[in-house]
Amino acid sequence: MNYPIWQLGFPGGLLIAAVAVLHVFISHFAVGGGAYLVLTEHRAYAHNDSELLGYVRLHSKFFALLTVVLGAVTGVGIWFTIGLVSPEATSSLIHTFVWGWAIEWVFFFVEIAAALIYAYNWDTLDRKTHLIIGWIYFVAAWLSLVVINGIITYMLTPGRWLETRTFWDGLFNPTYWASLWARTAMAAGLAGMFGLVTAMRERSPLRERVVRWAGWWLVLGIAALLPLSRWYFHDFPAYSRAYFSGTYMAVSHALRGGAACAGVALLLAVVFALLRPKMMNAVVVAVLLVAGFGVMGSGEYLREFSRYPYVINSYIYANDIRMAQLQGITANGVAKTSPWVETSAEDSNSYGRQLFVMECGTCHSVEGYRGMRKFARGWDAKFASELLLHLPIVRETMPPFAGDDHDRAALGGYLASLAPATPTGANEKALGQQVFAIHCSMCHSVGGQRRPLDLKGTDPDAIVGMVGSLHDMSPDMPSFTGTDAERHALAVYLSNPSQ
Amino acid sequence: MNLPIPHTDPMPLPAPVWLLRTLLLLTFFLHVLFMNCLLGGTAIALICMMRRKSSAYCAQLAGDLGRLLPSIFAFTITLGVAPLLFLQVMYGQFLYASSILIGVPWLGIIVMVVLAYYGVYFYSMHKQSGMTTAVLALVVLLLASIAFVYSNNFTLMLSPERWLEIYRSNAGGWTLNWSEPSLLPRYLHFVLGAFAVSGLGLLVLGLRQKADDYRQWLIEQGSMLFTGATILNFGVGFWFLARLPVSTRLAFIGGNGFATALLGIGMLLPLAAIAHLIMAKANKSPQRQLVIGVSCGVLTVAVMVIMRDVLRNLALAPYFSPNQLPVAPQWNIIVIFVVLFVAGLGTLYYMLRKVAIAGRMQAAAQKAE
Q1: Residues contacting residue A425 through CB under 8 Å, at least 6 positions apart
Q2: Is the pLDDT confidence value at A343 over 90?
Q3: How many interface pairs between A and B have CB atoms less than 8 angstroms apart?
């Protein structure tokens, strides 16, 4: 409302996800890989293993090139991206945590300098100093996670901050510790994973030694991650834990996919790194990397999804509208609230489209990802605008509609214009099934998980009566806007849906 | 006219404006020094690469720059993060709005930085060849483009009167702030400044050399670059001034005492720098004069950074000043930040000192052999 909307042609949330997953994948490696470097170096000295030392030298250069450049710059990239997609929330985060970020920046510059000095001064520095600089790197990198972890977890579980508005309550929030240790475990796992990447350049027998050593990091990291992420998800707010119950396909897929990736990574690491290190090859390492990316990506996706309908829980909605603003927008209308909408347009469809962009565009597109043309097939304007009154009921993940009746009518009209269709069917039951798809399936299923309707065996005439008084049955239901014939067909279908 | 300036954040500023502004200007000043050496340094390296076969000094400088540029790049980015943070706290509603309007090039900065950064590493890690020259040319192009996008956004954030028109004609963010009258002179002024500062960088590099001829050559080239770019920049600077809105321009030429004084000092300091560099040329032991010259040049950058801030505040004065925002300082965290900042600088000093000592010992050992 307050800011213009960057109209990318696809939901801005996707862009944030793309930049963020790339960044966290590398930045967790940047944390765990620091410990991996120094401990490998220690090991090489302790065993007087000059070959291993040669490996860790090479690995340190690869490490610096990946983390100092792509890792660091994509981190700035997240900042750029969230400022473009959710400026209101970004502004809020900055105002709450600017000193947290300033502290993280201190760790950041120490980290970058230490990484470069460590990677490029193997020949100049004595062993002890070189190790100290490696440890400085690792501690600074982990401390930057200590800070940023607080800001990330705050967005999902602001906890007492909502009342006190103090920095410390926001930072050390209810999911802080579980997330910190889960991320640390992931960092160790990724350190092993990337350790394998450079190990592929070595020859036997060093190669097997390194593969087994890196394999332990990977196995222990991922094995620790499993109970830690369980603890983390367990601390989620009750409303978002409900998303894990199976009603949200995307959540179930991400959960299963993430667990499967973790399982595959563990299995491959145990077999090819610990038991048969001779058999480890570039293809297995590539599969491991993909699996690691899958674990990281699904974890981040679940965290972000669990935050819906908010971007900052109970403070700012996912579409960047502040909770506190909602009442004012409903009372005054969007046109009086946002200077960015073009109200001079006579065409209410164009006004509706602008509202769509503003209120729905962070998560929905028209054609592509969560595309509305597919969902809105067959909707009429009255139905669509009534549905807008019940968005948090339609999906718990959706923020309420913000706007007055005029706005709601315009957006409803726009949505109805996306895919106008009159339900048809070879027989009354087929017609009824279509009517169900258009008018009921947003919230109900027949025999499914989501608010199942079990009216099997009920007299169709009784169902016709019910459909006529939906609003009396529940204030959360929009009224039925189909024709009498459609209503009857719906009743016939619901009374005997199975055949 | 009703301008679409977003409301300020309902949360108070977590620190007094003077502190935020000090940190903004201090970190930005440091960022500019490195950024200038990066932009100018890559361009100098490119020229040296093209002349490496006819001049041994050029080949040597191209090699030296190859070793220095990756670290300069790292410092540029690291020091750029902090001012961007403090800028957002104070001027977020302007910066976010203008960034969205030019979203594609603005986010494109990230892609360009990654490419340029890897390009610099490529240059630094490979033997001098036609290939490395080509990569370096691409890096220079990318860095110059990044600078141009920054010039666009930092002028657009000062022009809310233009926002709606841009948004209506291009909501996808595929545009730049083309209609800004001061865009081109501002950009050129800053880019020429970068060349001037990297001239000083060459000079400093020369002062640290042992080999007499190469040292002399670097000092001469650095002085010439600084002098030439600065003289040109006087012209571009007046052009820039002429393209500013009347009220802002008048403030700098008498209307506002502080702004006018800054402009005056900002013109005297580089002249003083040039004078010392010229005097150094005739002097048998020019070290002292060179150091004074470089210092005057660096101080000029500091004055320019403050002037740039004054210009921003003058442009925004009709709409907003951070001084009108409510303030609720988080002193306990600020203290922790300051302590950690000092500790961080100490750690940095420790590490760099260790490297320097080790480097010197190694050089001595090699000499002994």
Answers
A1: A431, A432, A433, A434, A489
A2: no
A3: 190
Beta bridge partners of A317: A310
Q: Is A102 on the interface with B (CB under 8 A)?
A: yes
Burial of A116 (0-12, 13-18, 19+ CB in 10 A): buried
User: What is the rounded CA–CA span in Å between residue A364 and residue A368?
Assistant: 8
- Asked whether the beta carbons of residue A126 and residue B358 sit closer than 8 angstroms, the reply is yes
**A117 contacts in chain B (CB < 8 Å):** 351-352, 355
β-pairing verdict for A310-312 and A316-317: antiparallel
Report helix, strand or coil for A445: strand
Task: Give the residue from A495, A378, A482, A492 showing the smallest Cα distance to A430.
Answer: A492
What domains can be seen in chain A, in order of their start residue?
12-317 (1.20.1630), 323-418 (1.10.760), 428-495 (1.10.760.10)
CA distances from A423 to A310, A378, A433, A468 (A): 35, 7, 9, 19
The answer to whether the CB atoms of B103 and A79 lie below 8 A apart is no
Crossing angle of the two packed helices B130-156 and B183-207, in degrees rounded to 10: 130
With CA atoms as reference, report the closest residue to B35 among B74, B64, B93.
B74
Q: Report residue A445 as tokens.
A: 């299923």
Q: Which residues pair with residue A452 across a beta bridge? A: A445
Helix extents (H) in A235-346 = 238-241, 249-268, 282-307, 326-332, 334-337
Q: From A84, which residue of chain B is nearest by alpha-carbon distance?
A: B100
3-class DSSP state for residue A474? coil
C-beta of residue A190 within 8 angstroms of C-beta of residue A28: yes
ipTM of the complex: 0.96
Closest of A187, A16, A33 to residue A90, by C-alpha: A16
Given a contact cutoff of 8 angstroms between Cβ atoms, the answer to whether A136 and A114 are in contact is yes
Closest Cβ opposite residue B85 in set A68, A98, A167 = A98
Sequence-ordered list of residues with C-beta below 8 angstroms from that of B290, at least 6 positions apart, any chain: B203, B207, B219, B276, B277, B280
- 8 Å CB contact of B92 and A112: no
Closest CA relative to residue A345, chosen from B175, B168, B352: B168
What is the pTM for the complete model shown?
0.96
Using the Cβ of B89 and the Cβ atoms of chain A, whether some distance falls under 8 Å is answered with: yes
Nearest Cα residue to A239 out of A165, A172, A319, A305: A305
CA contacts within 13 A on the Cβ side of B301: 29
Contact B106, B173 (CB under 8 A): yes
Per-domain boundaries in chain B: 13-180, 188-316
Is A356 at the interface with chain B, CB within 8 A? no
pLDDT tens, position by position, for chain B (369 residues)?
579 999 999 999 999 999 999 999 999 999 999 999 999 999 999 999 999 999 999 999 999 999 999 999 999 999 999 999 999 999 999 999 999 999 999 999 999 999 999 999 999 999 999 999 999 999 999 999 999 999 999 999 999 999 999 999 999 999 999 999 999 999 999 999 999 999 999 999 999 998 789 999 999 999 999 999 999 999 999 999 999 999 999 999 999 999 999 999 999 999 999 999 999 998 888 899 999 999 999 999 999 999 999 999 999 999 999 999 999 999 999 999 999 999 999 999 999 999 999 988 888 888 887
| A322 bridge partner residues | A316
- DSSP collapsed to 3 states, A386-443: HHHHHHHHHCCCCCCCCCCHHHHHHHHHHHHHHCCCCCCCCCHHHHHHHHHHHHCCCC
Q: What is the distance between the alpha carbons of residues B39 and B291, in angstroms, rounded to a whole number?
A: 23
What is the distance between the alpha carbons of residues A266 and A277, in angstroms, rounded to a whole number? 14
Query: How far is Cα B289 from Cα B247, in angstroms, rounded to an integer?
Result: 39
Sequence-distant contacts of B286-291: CB under 8 A, at least 24 apart: B286/B219, B287/B207, B290/B203, B290/B207, B290/B219, B291/B207
Q: Is B82 part of the contact surface with chain A (CB cutoff 8 Å)?
A: yes
